[in-house]
Amino acid sequence: MREVGYCAMTTKHYDVAVVGAGVFGAWTALELARRGKSVVLLEAYGPGHSRSSSGDESRIIRMGYGADEIYTRWSMRSLVKWKELFAATHNEALFQNTGVLWMAAAGDPTLRATREVLRRCAVKFRELDQPALASKYSQVGLENISEGIYEPESGVLMARRAVAATVTEAVRLSVDYRVAEVGPAGNTGRLSCVNCSNSGEPFSAEQFVFACGAWLGKIFPDILGPRIFVTRQAVFYMSIPGGDGRFGPQALPTWLIQNDECYGMPDLESRGLKVALDRHGEPADPDTQSRLVTDAEIAEMRDYVKRRFPALADAPIAETRVCQYENTSNGDFLIDRHPEMRNVWLVGGGSGHGFKHGPAVGAYVAGQLVGGEAPEPRFSLASKKTLQKRTVY
Ligand SMILES: Cc1cc2nc3c(=O)[nH]c(=O)nc-3n(C[C@H](O)[C@H](O)[C@H](O)COP(=O)(O)OP(=O)(O)OC[C@H]3O[C@@H](n4cnc5c(N)ncnc54)[C@H](O)[C@@H]3O)c2cc1C
Questions:
Q1: What SS3 state is found at 316?
Q2: Is the CB of 284 under 6 A from ligand 1?
């Protein structure tokens, strides 16, 4: 078999080179190190940097996934592992147990499916009817909402710092972390080495994991260009009126209203009420898209906040972010070998819901590389279509 990548004068040959230190790559490196593998983790900018999908302050960890039980189970597993990591590294505040509240119209099929799966998986939850929602959450506009599910043990991961903590732990377990932008990897043969595009420094390994988020389609344009749909996503933090405790985590949980395609979080660390649309935005390029919100995005968010949080209708916008989802055709993750380069793994397609699953993804990838774990067909490259039809939320 042809070897790709001429490796001149590498000082060390690794078991695995992981490219990308977002949440998927960081946990993959950590889980491989825990299994005794020698690992180099190569990242162009920094763990959880501000243009990566893992780079915002916060990400929801919830157990509800409609009928998609696999993600409920992965989320349960991941929450345990996040908490273990945070406890072991004295970072307990990186998980904020705000609770998660789903709100929907009467008879909502996703809420019904969520209830069934949570019951089956023995996840704690409470059901709320309209009067209960209205008396407990009078700060929320409940138009078209008649029922809710509350997950008391779920909450928020403080995202970019959680990724940094994961990388720190991986380094403690002897992972070599290097700031290096990896150049093109080719598309056939056995990969023996990747080169850093600025310095030309080579890194050689037995196996390679490309966990490059929205950049995956640029690195593998032939197979992933048409299969990873990168979309622009704007996030707003609304200022809270002075002395008003109704939007803090003691009064308001993290919330999702899927019919609105919207979600948000209480005023964590005094940054304001976080509100964002989960609806896919315009196609985006992670290198060149503007990180400033547009007037149209502001107007849409203002209308929404006025409807659901009337007390914040005129609240100043404290902060904004523009990030990107790296969607697969239906929202299932991509975790599979490259079809031509059999020692290369493609890991990504977090599709707007991947962050919480970092620990489960890392363990799964490590299991695949080390051997012995059965592959999940939903994560295969073969299941990824070139037309988008989202089914996983
Ligand atoms: C606005 C928004 C809200 C979200 N909300 C949630 C939520 O509430 N809960 C949830 O669970 N998930 C959520 N997600 C999804 C989640 O954040 C992502 O699925 C997850 O962070 C993806 O992680 P990743 O490691 O695959 O990608 P990234 O975090 O983008 O990491 C990829 C890394 O690869 C590096 N890289 C790329 N190319 C190269 C190269 N050539 N050489 C070296 N390094 C390279 C990049 O610099 C980057 O650091 C949200 C996403 C967004 C954008």
A1: coil
A2: no
